[in-house]
Specification:
InterPro entries: Cation_efflux, Cation_efflux_CTD, Cation_efflux_CTD_sf, Cation_efflux_TM, Cation_efflux_TMD_sf, CDF/SLC30A. Keywords: Ion transport, Membrane, Transmembrane, Transmembrane helix, Transport. The protein is of the alpha+beta class. It has two domains: about 5-215, Up-down Bundle (Alpha-lytic protease prodomain-like), CATH 1.20.1510.10; about 225-295, Cation efflux protein, cytoplasmic domain (Alpha-Beta Plaits). Helix content is about 65%, strand content about 10%. It has helices at about 15-20, 20-45, 45-75, 90-115, 125-150, 155-180, 185-215, 225-230, 265-280, and strands at about 1-5, 235-250, 250-260, 285-295. It has a four-stranded mixed beta sheet with strand order 1-4-3-2, covered by helices on one side.
Length: about 300
Amino acid sequence: MGSGHGHGHGGSGHAGAAHRWRLQVAFVLVALFFVVELVTGLLSGSLALMSDAGHMAADVVALGAALVATRIATRADTTGRRTYGSYRAEVFASGLAVLLMLGVSVYIVVEAVARIGSEPQVATGAMLVVGGLGLVVNVVSLLLLRGGAADSLNVKGAYLEVVADTVGSLGVLAAGGLVAATGDAVWDTVVALAIAVFVAVRAVVLGREVLGVLAQHAPAGIHPDEAEAALRAVPDVLDVHDLHLWTLTSGMNVATAHLVCADGADPGRVLDAAGRTLRERYGIDHATLQVEPRGTRSCVETSW
């Protein structure tokens, strides 16, 4: 006997959809400022400013992808084949953000190496003005996205992009100040490299989370052994096997398990108690549980 949920997958109750408005506002702010920073970077000759503009471009793409992903995730399935809906679109968008962040980091390093031995002219006044404006835009976007970063991996990807941009804006201000104070343009290159390292580190951290979801690892904070022990503690449950725990998308954890019950046990009560245990202890609302009488041969063991 099994128990599952017959939920449709076209709803908008997941974390990403709840924070779509944050992504929309941040996208508009970042897109507008990207144009300003790119033009100023080209005119001023600042690598730090250009690197930050490049990261802003990555932000525009990442935020746009995040917005599209939240829309796709809530779209009703018309094919009948997407039995889990399209929620994974948000995870793929986070993966795109990781690739963009790494790409920007590599670009900055290549440009910095190309400048070795040269003495570029850098317009520090433009750097300071645009760096200051960028800091304001990034802080506003940061505050917007911070409210949803803990709930949605998709929003977290966008949030980390803006965190890196905020550091980039601070770096532009620092580079402008150092170049103006010393007259040495090497500080522009040094700060650009520091921004590249910071962005790469943040990308790797987010990338590990994305891969964990795509590889269907147990959700963060839930140890399979502990979950199995909790199910074994349910009245009339003698054994638990074939327990699987994974994350569909942020805030949507899933579980399946086979429960071996004592003779005369009420399957309905066992299912209710087991489902309640997973829901209350681990926040798993979607669990598919199969109840098996002791000694049954109905469960065929697989090779994997």
